[in-house]
Amino acid sequence: MNAPTNPSFDVAHLGHVEIFTDRFEESLDFFTRVYGLKCSAQEGDSAYLRAWDDYEFHSMKLTRAERTGIGHVGYRVASPEALERRVAAIEASRFKSLGWVDGDRGHGRAYRFEDPFGHVFELYWETVRYEAPEADRSALKNLASRFTGNGVNTRRIDHVNLLGEDVSEFRDFAEVCLGSRVTEYIQLDNGRLGGVWFSVNNKTYDLVCTEERGKGHGRLHHVTYATDTREDILKAADIYLENGVFIETGPHKHAIQGSFFLYAWEPAGNRVELANAGARLILAPDWEPVCWTEADRKKGQAWGLKTIPTFHTHGTPPVEE
Amino acid sequence: MNAPTNPSFDVAHLGHVEIFTDRFEESLDFFTRVYGLKCSAQEGDSAYLRAWDDYEFHSMKLTRAERTGIGHVGYRVASPEALERRVAAIEASRFKSLGWVDGDRGHGRAYRFEDPFGHVFELYWETVRYEAPEADRSALKNLASRFTGNGVNTRRIDHVNLLGEDVSEFRDFAEVCLGSRVTEYIQLDNGRLGGVWFSVNNKTYDLVCTEERGKGHGRLHHVTYATDTREDILKAADIYLENGVFIETGPHKHAIQGSFFLYAWEPAGNRVELANAGARLILAPDWEPVCWTEADRKKGQAWGLKTIPTFHTHGTPPVEE
Amino acid sequence: MNAPTNPSFDVAHLGHVEIFTDRFEESLDFFTRVYGLKCSAQEGDSAYLRAWDDYEFHSMKLTRAERTGIGHVGYRVASPEALERRVAAIEASRFKSLGWVDGDRGHGRAYRFEDPFGHVFELYWETVRYEAPEADRSALKNLASRFTGNGVNTRRIDHVNLLGEDVSEFRDFAEVCLGSRVTEYIQLDNGRLGGVWFSVNNKTYDLVCTEERGKGHGRLHHVTYATDTREDILKAADIYLENGVFIETGPHKHAIQGSFFLYAWEPAGNRVELANAGARLILAPDWEPVCWTEADRKKGQAWGLKTIPTFHTHGTPPVEE
Amino acid sequence: MNAPTNPSFDVAHLGHVEIFTDRFEESLDFFTRVYGLKCSAQEGDSAYLRAWDDYEFHSMKLTRAERTGIGHVGYRVASPEALERRVAAIEASRFKSLGWVDGDRGHGRAYRFEDPFGHVFELYWETVRYEAPEADRSALKNLASRFTGNGVNTRRIDHVNLLGEDVSEFRDFAEVCLGSRVTEYIQLDNGRLGGVWFSVNNKTYDLVCTEERGKGHGRLHHVTYATDTREDILKAADIYLENGVFIETGPHKHAIQGSFFLYAWEPAGNRVELANAGARLILAPDWEPVCWTEADRKKGQAWGLKTIPTFHTHGTPPVEE
């Protein structure tokens, strides 16, 4: 791993992910009634969803499609000038530019580009802040919307994890195009990177790339929202159980990043995680990326839970083994 | 205070309370949507409500009335023989018998009697267990109904607090008629009892009598349901805030009994408390009642919060000062 | 399973367990510094330990020995008369009486008897209440000792799990000798009982017998203390990790009994569990024991965790396979 | 309030505060045994303390003095160049430069300056990372030191609150000298600012100035460390109670910033707060500062608790009224 990369802060934060589902109604029911997101709008083939503490119009765009997986990942930049700097950096790079798009219900024009494994990203400055209607306005004027305690009570979008055939290559992509810094990574004995965790701000991560072990390309490993507390995640496990949601693994604590996790599959098969909002912040400007070797990984998760096999194989869309 | 009273265990547990409301629709909306109770049935002027962990058909009977306050308090006995013993004890006492009633949606015939301050109690053996319909059946076969995490997520009925003009007299009533034991009490400097906490089982209390300081008679101070955790009660405070429910005091911890509390008024004005289910159990068969003097009480609640004035005056139905 | 057994309430509660250790100093360090127990006294080959909410002198007697496992299990009865009734019942039974012993630091004379698998039990009425010295006296007069938050912050003794070659036989023993009731059980496809959970009071269980699958006799499966919250157990996992304590499995939630658990091995190898104090109470006097079949058990723990192999083999003292 | 200020990110984070105490031994005992800080070194008249998740050598310098209050506030910058930029900005401003100092046990040379009310600040780049000795090394390689769960289990330094005679003036100071942005503020009816909350990064605040209502100058209102959870803060209240620590107010939730709080006075009288680490992040680059009017403030804290009078008068060092 190279010397630590100081983030440019040109990119402010993960804004939204677009998730494809081939069971739109069931997925929408899951995300709103069980997962606890609120629906800002439903338009065409998409529903625009957000958690109660997300300030933008949407943090998830759920789109009816013939397959599952990820549509695109949107990051908001820190200023119009930062957007210009980023676009210049991307266009000067070896990575694939897709050019400007007009924007969407939740934001203005956006610049699109692609990682080497087929995942589409976009950067935008102009956003649509969520304006709560009366029924969703919080009693506290510093909240974007009402705290309802609905379902598993997700609070804000947290991160997205993508599968890539060459994690080192993805690391270069994230550093060059997003100005991300690496906070932790897995170093395999074969010299390859097994996974890398990135952040553009003080959150400990907002983006992860782990190695694609199947024949997939451009696949999603999972998308994660944060809950307030670990206790929320324990309750979420009961709510999943009672609603017939498939729990893949957890609740438990990750050794890497130390976040408390629960993985489940939404009705269409996309993996969704819950993690706790109180996780570590990376405040050190010269944070040294933490290296996890295969020997470290053999100890399992923080408290010894072994990683289950599907975690290495299941992604969306599914592929034949 | 006399020597500790070993509970007879003839009375098994608090079964239900009947609450009167002069704003039936609003109260029902509060108790189901916000407070988190489930509605087993609505019939005539009453709704039969229960929390997800209550095994009987109902633990609250909410009844449309021209006033607020308490209708009656129902306790389930430990066996048919225990019921006979209790009835004999009540009939042999100086307290007022009201005789047998036919029962209700949630239980069989019941024996009614009255405390010296006009509160009606009943004892019953035959009960109607809640039989969850498919949509409310838990994935766990040892649960009475589905865990939903709905609203403030109340788990089970906990206790009821009644106002009485003479707390010593109420203590005799509870010991003689219910076979309750005293677990804690307030000894006023004037020689009177300020409040007494009673239990018929290993819960640390299920019944409280505190001194009526107004001109009321037969009034309710509050009814309480337990939540799983203190964190649930913190979230409840936010949910109350967002739903415009009047928070009277809390969240904080009682010095007496050590329970974590939050007091609010439901739309008709009846005071409802939340307390945490993980409170102390009284396992000692010879538990010595804990005496709190006025000097002790001057320290406030466990962490110093002062008792607010309405706590000493507000009861239902309200009375002119 | 026969008709539900109504508990006699002659036996009040689990009082203490005696644990043997062949690494006394290490075990004592674990139980006091990590597990959070307080030492009332150390005398001869034993240390007398208790949690902050245990009202008796000790709830664990830790004894230096040449082997690990359980010394005896002590239950406190509800009254002197209850003790007489119990002794008469035991002596009239087919189970083995060991007669009276003089008592111990923490209680008066006790009547000893043995289950068919070599575990020694005792019943006693006269107890020694813990009298906190000034430095351990709580600011709250209703607490037995000071809340310190020390280590994993155990609150009270919860239950003990013994291995028995014939669980049906143990069920008869517990019903006859202790007046226990069965709250849940595992029914194996071969017609045998796989495990039974018992309670003498409103706690959902205080004693468990699971089937001995090895060549052991009189072995301990585990002893459990309760913490206030599930969050305490999550923190405990970190404290175990940091102190090099072997975590066997968890934290997770049991399907049976619904308790949140964490299993670890203390330095001498005795399995110790943490469970949350806020678990379900069994208030129904006619609780119907819940039956879990092998088909049920195949679903794993509440949220799907599979039972690990050592859970079926490891007991203390260890035996050759 | 002017247009929102985009933070420069030149200043990375609050690094440490120096606290004066005229009861050094008692304060040190409080901060280490009760408040849960670890002592990196004791040297001369100072102890260097940090929480388990603070990556630097110290986040609190506790110094023996003839008075209480604040010594200085240290912020770490994002790079050597950022330090140059900041120094240039300060020297070009109307605020008072104190010049370079050699550094301290925990960091290299630092540039000092003073706010208009006598509080000393310093900026530094070169820091001393905490290198855990074996006994304090975490089992998790991404943690700066061992998680012990000691005392109230503080996790990291959170913020400092200073009293200033003119909050508007302090706002200019913080924006110019630290590059802070305002996240929330109190607008008094008299046109003055009652309090302003600042942040240099994604934390919702790290610095607060509230109006000095006494005759003090350069006084400290409080210093705050974050705990993992709100439950930690509830336990902290019990630990304070048992240790005779004066609880001033709380636990409760602030309307402003939404943090859960508990205020106490350490033995020398300095006010110390606990707040939960899971508080809101300010990810929006164009966050609009939230304005709280006197009318808003009349509603009390988030759940209605009224602000206690000492909160407006007590600061350190104390002043005659």
From TrEMBL, chains A, B, C, D:
Name of one Pfam family that matches: Glyoxalase
Superkingdom of source: Bacteria
All copies of domain VOC, residue ranges: 13-126, 156-277
Signal peptide: none
Protein name: Catechol 2,3-dioxygenase
